[in-house]
Design a protein that fits this description.
The chain has 111 residues and is of the alpha+beta class. The chain folds into two domains: 73 residues, Nucleoid-associated protein YbaB-like domain (Ybab, Chain: A), CATH 3.30.1310; 36 residues. 59% of the residues lie in helices and 14% in strands. The protein is built from three helices and three strands, in the order αβββαα. The protein has a three-stranded antiparallel β-sheet with strand order 1-2-3. The longest helix is centred in the middle third of the chain and has 31 residues.
């Protein structure tokens, strides 16, 4: 399984189609191709294009990794990780609200 994951490459194209990126395990950038037309963009627009392509490539890699690991592990790791992150963030919001409520009840200023 490790060899299959290492050999995989995720590929993504930016929103405007001017940048293509390839990534590997851990989101490592393997290749970045910038269309000459992208040089007409502002620095901020070019940065957004590059980030968009890399994010799409990382997402593509995650899908391919899930396809490899899913049948073996019985779960899709990237999907489960996102769900766990969202659940954890929701729980932190609840705990923060509880802490604020308790502080107000006791007259404690947390700011």
């Amino acid at each position: 399984m490790q060899q299959l994951l290492t050999a995989q490459t995720g590929t993504g194209t930016s929103r405007q189609g001017l940048v293509t990126a390839s990534t590997g395990p851990s989101g490592m950038l393997r290749d970045l191709e910038i269309n000459p037309d992208a040089m007409r963009l502002s620095p901020a627009e070019l940065t957004a294009e590059i980030k968009s392509a890399i994010t799409a490539a990382q997402s593509d890699y995650a899908t391919k990794a899930d396809d490899i690991m899913g049948p073996i592990l019985g779960v899709r790791p990237s999907q489960d990780a996102q769900e766990a992150l969202e659940a954890g963030m929701s729980r932190l919001d609840e705990l923060s609200a509880d802490l604020d409520r308790i502080a107000r009840e006791r007259g404690i200023d947390l700011r």
